[in-house]
Amino acid sequence: MTDVTERRGAGTGRADPAAATPAADEATRDDLLLEHQLCYALTVASRSVVGAYKPVLDALGLTHPQYLVMLCLWESSPRSVRDISESLAQEPATISPLLRRLETAGFITRQRMEGNERALAVRLTPRGAALRQQATAVPGTMMARLGLTREQVSQLHASMMDLIAATRSAPAAADEALRR
Fold it and tell me: What's the per-residue H, E or C state across 82-114?
């Protein structure tokens, strides 16, 4: 029988990689399977869900990113570009082209904010506000298209929000661990 000290790396306190068990080796190999990658599952799920939204949003004259902007504005209008970009976790430079297209479509207006000439106030037009009524059917339509109940959607949403929170705190913790 091998001495515990010998298996752990001759008294260094570190595990000897050569002493790994076959089950641990298999689990480690399985960790690198594409089908086990969280990033892969999230990428495919995101692309698939956004694709499922396309025909539903086409009927409203919106792309998925434009729909997200409109959701922000239906919650509160007017809003600054910075406020919209923060709500969507996007850079203002990413939001600006979406706003131009929404303005061209007649859904919003952009005007300089009083008291702050550098900031833009984004407001719904009457046409943009009226679009909200049509959009109320989108969540139910999407649940039906995806075969999900409201409870399942709520659970998925909670899991995704937890994941988002973890990714926002993880870089600081990882940086701290690397410094040690």
Answer: HHHHHHCCCCHHHHHHHHHHHHHCCCEEEEEEC
Low-confidence ranges of the chain (pLDDT < 70): 1-21, 24, 171-178, 180
State how far the Cα of 96 lies from the Cα of 82, in Å rounded to an integer. Answer: 10
For the question of whether the overall pTM of this predicted structure is more than 0.85, the answer is no
Q: How many domains does the chain have?
A: 2
- Using one digit for the tens of pLDDT, what is the confidence trace for 99-138? 999 999 999 999 987 877 788 899 999 999 999 999 999 9
| HSE (side-chain half, CA atoms, 13 Å) at 154 | 3
Give the CATH number, domain containing residue 97: 1.10.10.10
Judge whether 68 and 88 are in contact, CB under 8 Å: yes
Q: Do 105 and 62 fall within a single domain? A: yes
| Strands laid side by side in the 79-80 sheet | 79-80, 116-124, 108-113
Residue 124 C-beta-side C-alpha neighbours within 13 Å: 18
